Amino acid sequence: MKLFRLCICFLFITAWLGKSYAQTIATTASTKPTIVVTNDTIKKSAADSLIKKHDPRKATRRSAIIPGWGQAYNREYWKIPLVYGAIAIPAGLFVYNNNWYKKTKYAYEAKYNAEVNKDSSGLAGIDPQLQGLSAASLQSYRNSFRRDRDYSILFFLLAWGLNVVDATVFGHLKDFDVSSDLSMNVKPIFNPTTRTPGLTFTLSPKKPEHKLYEVR
Fold it and tell me: pLDDT by residue (tens digit) across 117-139?
């Protein structure tokens, strides 16, 4: 009899615990947010995996910092040797002209002191290629080398600026379809007012389209 009562109590407790657990699960399920996946969500996720449109400001800043970096950002790698060639020429001319400017300046001052002040102590330091020149000739060469040196600085800055402009312009064109898909119609007309013939030109350019680039 006692065993029977114990069995009844055990079944009652088990049923009560099962009911409480079921209520807890139902409450948790009802409070859990529902996530709905739509086609728009999938398309947005796919679009987020692509890079935004090409930013020409990045090309401008990079070319201003390091020549050719903006061209690399635009994926125009063939322009990088041209950029460095255009910058290297005035840089080399600056070194050459500045070197000879210093030599002719020293030689002129030494010759001037020797002729005017009778001080020939600096003549030994004159470059051998300038030993036979007079003070007037050395002064002319000095001014010429100094002018060419200043011009080389100007050309260097100009080449650097053209590098930035090139990266900026082609950075803007990167997002547009610049193919030669143009239709031109030419047909003769007659103007009844002036009674003169003429020609009409009709250009229909292709509408530009923005492009998306894959992440690399």
Answer: 777 788 888 898 998 888 899 99
